[in-house]
Amino acid sequence: DGGITQSPKYLFRKEGQNVTLSCEQNLNHDAMYWYRQDPGQGLRLIYYSQIVNDFQKGDIAEGYSVSREKKESFPLTVTSAQKNPTAFYLCASSQDRGTSQETQYFGPGTRLLVL
Amino acid sequence: KNQVEQSPQSLIILEGKNCTLQCNYTVSPFSNLRWYKQDTGRGPVSLTIMTFSENTKSNGRYTATLDADTKQSSLHITASQLSDSASYICVVSYLSNFGNEKLTFGTGTRLTIIP
User: Fold this and answer.
1) Cross-chain residue pair A4–B43, CB shorter than 8 Å
2) Looking at residue B29, what is its pLDDT?
3) How much is the average pLDDT of B1-17?
4) Which residues of chain A lie closer than 8 angstroms to B93, CB-CB?
5) What's the gap between Cα B115 and its chain centre?
6) Which of A8, B40, B68, B109 is the most buried (most CB within 10 A)?
7) pLDDT attached to residue B52
8) From residue A78, how far is each of A2, A34, A86 by CA, in Å?
9) Peptide bond before B115: cis, by omega within 30 degrees of 0?
């Protein structure tokens, strides 16, 4: 899991509720990412950030929001607009998104369940 | 459409035996191919990364091969151990129209090692 931490490990959401997943890295990496993992599917990119105060939508950004106020932190908010939020959420970071051989280091993940 | 297909979907082998996992892709233009190991309920961990010009790369008992002409890769595990039980994910990257790197994830092969 490298120097990336995610919390909580498990999170329960009630209908209509926004919840925020935490992701912190101490690797001094510039780029950070959020992925969603569902059974039988490959990881899908939700949002990514290459630098502080800047972030871009991934392939499935609808119903999610992020912020990047500090280099080491990239929290993900799952809003009530996300109708099927139950999934395993993975945060990752890399030194520089522009370099093709940069390895992405993943956190331990947060499992989100809907009550 | 950029796709990454892995086979088999699942595999069970005896401890000490060798095995080979397959990855076929249609991603273009190809940038690099990575293999990740993901333990249940944890984040993926990088095993190897190969560029277009590399045919093989090893990491301990793991050896990855790449045939860029046929767009195929394999991950060979030698003398399997119980700790090899995990999902193995093939990830292919390409450069988008905007010049940034994008990743396409396979759905993984679930490997179970039995004593």
Assistant:
1) yes
2) 84
3) 94
4) 100
5) 24
6) B109
7) 85
8) 25, 11, 10
9) no
Condensed to tens digits (0 to 9), the pLDDT of residues B57-82 reads 999 999 999 999 999 999 999 999 99
CB contact under 8 A, A43 and B46: no
The mean pLDDT of chain B is 93
Phi, then psi, of B7 in degrees rounded to 5: -145, 150
Which residue in the block uniquely carries the two structure tokens 């999902």? B87
Amino acid at position B83, single letter:
S
Which pLDDT value is given to residue B36? 97
* Whole-number Å distance between alpha carbons of A7 and B58: 33
User: Nearest residue of B to residue A87 by CA position?
Assistant: B41
Pairing relationship of beta strands B109-114 and B10-14 according to DSSP bridges: parallel
Q: Using CB atoms, pick whichever of A41, A97, A105 lies closest to residue B101.
A: A97
